[in-house]
Design goal:
Blueprint (H helix, E strand, L loop, with lengths): L8 H8 L3 E7 L1 H4 L9 E6 L3 H4 L8 E4 L4 E5 H9 L3 H8 L5 E4 L1 H8 L9 H20 L4 H17 L1 H4 L7 E9 L5 E8 L5 H21 L7 H24 L10 H8 L5 H20 L9 H16 L1
Parallel strand pairs: 2-4
Antiparallel strand pairs: 1-2, 1-5, 3-4, 6-7
GO molecular function: transferase activity
InterPro entries: RlaP (IPR018775)
Pfam family, one: RlaP
């Protein structure tokens, strides 16, 4: 098996190029929000050669090259991430054609069936990313209270639990709920759970608790973060507003608009510091209200059709290997 972590960015590019079925420019450029100093980042969907795919080593999923960033996702990993409504992965399927730098027929099939990956669960995924940006801003400004952090942690844990049925088949056969979220005497997260199952695989239980534990660790790090330069925080604010608007649009229309043509000037003004923080927080509150309303009246299904997504994956792999 190839050891990707020890390869240079150039070596990764040479290895993955023949295996790439879809490559797109991502990030600020694809949003239309890039500046003169912005890097041009890319993401690729790849299928490994037979010899490297059918190997006893751990299955390849994702590797990242830097300066500039280029993420390479195995097709299975990519489709699983898209199925969880991951915003930075979904944008590969919905970005404008001019930002697609390579596409083979298998990539064309992915983009042709991109609506398969949309469901009302994007309320949690986009909203979760947005809330993360908001907490980074408040933490960086020194305005995040313990109550803010506990509310954020509780929302994060509940959002994670709502995704369990996508990953853990036995999840619905019992009770798995948050009983309470507090801080202990050392200021660390103390999470109370109610868990009851007549029978559950240890691997599934370990996976669920690991996801919640990781969220708890991120909470514990949050209080230790130092203030960040305003320029960095303004960029977070721009993406916070962008994520909320994209989520509202996709829930309302069933379409994901990656390029921000209509609100580009407003978003760039936020990045340039033309709004006060109070104005930005007021804007966020209004968008969060609209997001909840969009979820209640969404045109999207409650869940994706995992069977159809699985069949698409099988068809692509079988065709690739012939």
């Amino acid at each position: 098996m190839v050891t990707f972590n020890h390869m240079t960015a150039e070596e990764l590019q040479q290895y993955f190029e023949p295996q790439t079925i879809l490559r797109t420019i991502t990030g600020s450029t694809s949003y239309g929000l890039n500046t003169a100093t912005s890097d041009v980042d890319e993401k690729s969907v790849v299928i490994l050669p037979k010899r490297d795919c059918f190997d006893l080593s751990q299955e390849f999923e994702t590797v990242v090259a830097h300066e500039p960033d280029h993420e390479y996702h195995a097709l299975k990993k990519f489709m699983n991430l898209a199925n969880t409504q991951n915003p930075t992965v979904l944008e590969i399927l919905f970005t404008e054609d001019r930002f697609v730098t390579k596409i083979m027929k298998h990539g064309e099939e992915l983009r042709k069936h991109r609506e398969l990956f949309l469901s009302s669960a994007c309320f949690d995924s986009f909203g979760g990313y947005a809330r993360q940006q908001l907490m980074r801003i408040k933490s960086g400004l020194g305005r995040a209270t313990i109550e803010d952090n506990l509310t954020y942690l509780t929302e994060t844990l509940e959002r994670i639990i709502r995704t369990f049925d996508l990953h853990y088949p036995g999840y619905k056969d019992g009770v798995f709920a948050i009983r309470g979220v507090n801080v202990d005497d050392d200021g660390k997260a103390a999470i109370g759970l109610t868990v009851h199952y007549d029978g559950l695989e240890l691997k599934q239980l370990a996976g669920m608790t690991a996801e919640l534990t990781n969220a708890s660790k991120n909470f514990n790090k949050m209080g230790a973060r130092n203030k960040r330069p305003d320029e960095k925080l303004e960029k977070h604010a721009m993406h916070l507003i962008r994520l909320l608007k994209m989520a509202i649009e996709v829930l309302t229309t069933g379409k994901l608009n990656v390029y921000r043509e209509k609100d580009r000037d407003e978003l760039l003004s936020i990045r340039q510091g033309k709004y006060t923080w109070d104005e930005i927080f007021e804007m966020v509150a209004g968008l969060e209200t609209r997001l909840r309303e969009a979820k209640a009246a969404t045109v999207l299904p409650a869940a994706t059709d995992s069977r159809k997504i699985g069949e698409l994956y099988s068809d692509l792999m079988i065709d690739w290997y012939g």
